[in-house]
Amino acid sequence: MTIQQKIPGGRPLDLSRRSFLAVAGGAGVGLVIGLKADPALAAPSGAPVQFNPFVKVSPDGAVTVIVKHLDKGQGVATGLATIVAEEMDADWATIRTEFAPANPALYANLAFKAQGTGGSTSIANSWDQYRTAAATARAALVKAAAAEWKVAAGEIKVVNGVISHPSGKTGSFGQFAEKAGDSAEPTAAPQAPQFKEPKDYRLIGKEGLHRVDNDSKTDGTAIYTQDLKLPGMLVAVVAHPPKFGGKPKSFNDAEARKIRGVEQVVQIPTGVAVLARNTWAAIQGRNALEVEWDDSAAENRGSDELMAACKDAVSKPGVATATNAGDAEGALKGAAKVIEADFAFPYLAHAAMEPLNACVELKDGGVKITTGAQFQSIDLAVASKVAGVPMDKVVIDTVWAGGSFGRRAVPTSDYIAEAVMIAKAIDGKAPVKLVWTREDDMKGGYYRPMYAHRVRAAIGPDGMPVAWHHRIAGQSIMTGTAMEPMLVKDGVDDTSVEGASNLAYAVPNLKVELTTIKAGVPVLWWRSVGHTHTAHAVETVIDELAYAAGKDPVEYRLALLKDKPRHAGVLKLAAEKAGWGEKLAKGKGRGVAVHESFNSYVAQVVDVTIKPDGAVKVDRVVAAVDCGIVVNPDVVRAQIEGGVGFGLGAALRNAITLKGGEVEQGNFDKYKPLRISDMPHVEVHIVKSEEKPTGVGEPGVPPIAPALANAIFAATGKRVRDLPLGDQKFTSV
Amino acid sequence: MIKLNINGEERELDIAEDTPLLWVLRDEVGLTGTKFGCGVAQCGACTIHLDGAPVRSCMTMAADAVDSKIVTIEGLVAETGSKEGKAVQAAWRALDVVQCGYCQSGQMMSAAALLAGNKKPSDADIDSAMNGNVCRCATYQRVRAAIHDAAKRLEA
After folding, report:
1. Which of B32, B73, B130 sits opposite A227 (nearest CB)?
2. Using CB atoms within 10 A as the burial measure, which of A171, A498, B46, B152 is most buried?
3. Are B97 and B141 members of one domain?
4. Are residues B68 and B101 in the same domain?
5. Quick check: A331 and B116 in contact, CB under 8 A?
């Protein structure tokens, strides 16, 4: 496949696979995904020299950073490029980026020991690896210059891509790329060199670096899976069973075949696929199909019945115990003041802007997939199995993804598997682009699970908590997946209880129980996973305890966070910047929440207005984040702003519901996303830190719903426990 | 055969009259900057200009655009593009509005159309004009700021 991408102000790049060197031992080389416009790059250049799996230098001076993680908007391509440019002392203007091919031996996420993107691990797991790769490449360039100039390597300086010696000799990266490449040994684990001191950073933590994908995503030239067009390609749209677990029994395609452009209709295990010469014909063809479904193994329950099962489970002792410190039940019995709170959380769809899709070519006994691949290790295994070819015959090229929020990392690789099934069903006679419509995407499952919580918490005579008894019930994300052995222990799926089982507050008697509910609705991690619900329960109950104790909610939390300096740090910063403690007018409310997820700490203060009709308007969110060393401050701010918006949409009005096993929402008319008129003003403050960097893709999400609920309480005296808020009206006090 | 004027170019296309413009632009003409998000005019990712007005190309039939000037993101930011388009693009770049980027062509088309009719939009004007453009990354705060920034650039 060849994609021509126009460099703004420069020459078009030939992105055919052959134009790049193969990575040592690698299956293939990814597409160039972003680059900085610079006149220096306009000159014709020879083949780039691969220094190691992560860094290439072209004779024209371009430094290409190979990005092992999917960038679905979170800015990891920019982050990894910044780390490399810093440690190489490269000129930022010469940096380009390219997605790594699927090759777990070279490109595993060191946090997962598998190639994949998630859990806000990208920068954290890549930090030492990419610094090492960059420092190694820099050392090789210096060595080559030293040899040519016949000087000691230690006398050579590198500043902004210029190699120089006190004698007056200077040279560029490009000039020494080939010589340095000769001596550079491509290896997955170069020797650990001496890294730069943070005080010497000129890119990391600095303002003013633009995202590497800023230009191409602003002028419409960035290529997503949806935009791929291969010679002879057919577009496939699939009729899926209306209930999870359903299967096609028989179909009539007489009307579908009459549609101009429709080429073929095939039955596959997941439905009936219409293949056409263009997308519109495939959609029309799919709509014209008559399919009879076999629902004998399908999930027939609706969300009301499933929620009733969750509610019933939390009214009884949990099947498994996640945490048991002290004697929570005993302490509750003797306590003066006990608070009981029940919570309900619905299924949630990821609903990324780019509906799911994948391109598949079967040829030469192998399979080639191009998509926004987020979990390559699993995608490789699934594609190999479905296609019936050995794993080393599977090539996956990654392109930009129009969002994911977790949905493109699927333990079953559902959408990739389906694309391969279709390519196989037509004997690989043409490349296939599988396109899910918005309805397919929204009804296609893999939701944030539905959960019920019951919390009973008590305070002592001094108002401080003495017991916390927390029950959670819902489906397990990890059970039945390859991750089960790692993340499910003694019947506890950690992703069902994380954020509650490791309660940050000092409570002497703590018990967290879990009952896992079985249902046929596919579930999955959704931006910030378990914290999406546990933070809401924990942070609204702690707020309730503070009010019950007659104490200020910020002071109360700080008193319980004495041993948690990073929680306390963000809480203090957000409170101070928000003007916590000011008197607010009637009809206004201010609430706070603080939560750690994925080793990053975020506090948010939310201001709301109760409108005359009783509806809630979110006016402002002041956030503070501690994510260790900040690689790109503007990307951090963007992720927290976006996390606030993503979580707020869900808190206000999102829910996937089922009736008789069928999903009731199909598009944005019924699953109403946050719109610009709902978006509050968001301020983000970053804690200065020299701790190792941690992630920011997810941690902005968990605090927003509880901070909002706590603000509504401050304004109205009413506790919001069930999400979403929906059409509830409030009266201010 | 249908004749369409796309980004200033006359094109003759062998397509059914009721084909949505979205698919004509993307699949027939190869202008993939206009995105498919929902197919039912709920998200705005497919926003284009029809004689300067922002329309959802997923719900506009090719036949309805025959005598109109169609402009896509590619035409908006090209050398021949509008001054509003250039200001919007410059502001978007300056503020790093994009995250996943998938909705941004549509956002910019709506923003340029707003500025063509309102030189100095308030936040409320922006919210009203941009409410049909969904961004699941929630870049809305920067969209607002970038529109104000573009308005300033147009003043200068």
Report:
1. B32
2. B46
3. yes
4. no
5. no
Give how many domains chain B has, as a whole number.
Answer: 2
DSSP A447: B
The whole domain housing A164 covers: 22-218
**Residue A499 class from Cβ within 10 Å (0-12 exposed, 13-18 middle, 19+ buried)?**
buried
Tell me how far apart the alpha carbons of residues A248 and A273 are, in angstroms, rounded to a whole number.
Answer: 11
- For residue A351, which of A650, A147, A638, A556 has the smallest C-alpha distance? A650
Interface test with B, best of A70, A219, A438 (most B CBs within 10 A): A219
Are B73 and A219 inside 8 Å of each other by CB? yes
Q: In the numeric block, which tokens belong to residue A402?
A: 């129009």
Report d(CA A678, CA A608) in Å as an integer.
12
- What's the pLDDT tens digit per position in A76-124? 999 999 999 999 999 999 999 999 999 999 999 999 999 999 999 999 9
- Single-letter residue type at A32: V
Return the HEC string of A83-94.
HHHHHHCCCHHH
pLDDT digit string, tens, across residues B6-17 = 999 999 999 999
Q: What is the pTM of this model?
A: 0.94
| Contact in structure between B72 and B6 (CB atoms under 8 Å) | yes
Question: For residue A435, what are the β-bridge partners?
Answer: A357
Same domain, A507 and A621: yes
The region, left, alpha or beta by phi > 0 then psi within -120 to 50, assigned to residue A85 is alpha
| DSSP-derived secondary structure letter, A609 | E
Question: Could you give the CA distance from residue A356 to residue A513 in angstroms, rounded to a whole number?
Answer: 35
Residue of A nearest to B21 (CA): A280
The CATH number for A401's domain is 3.30.365.10
ipTM, 2 dp: 0.98
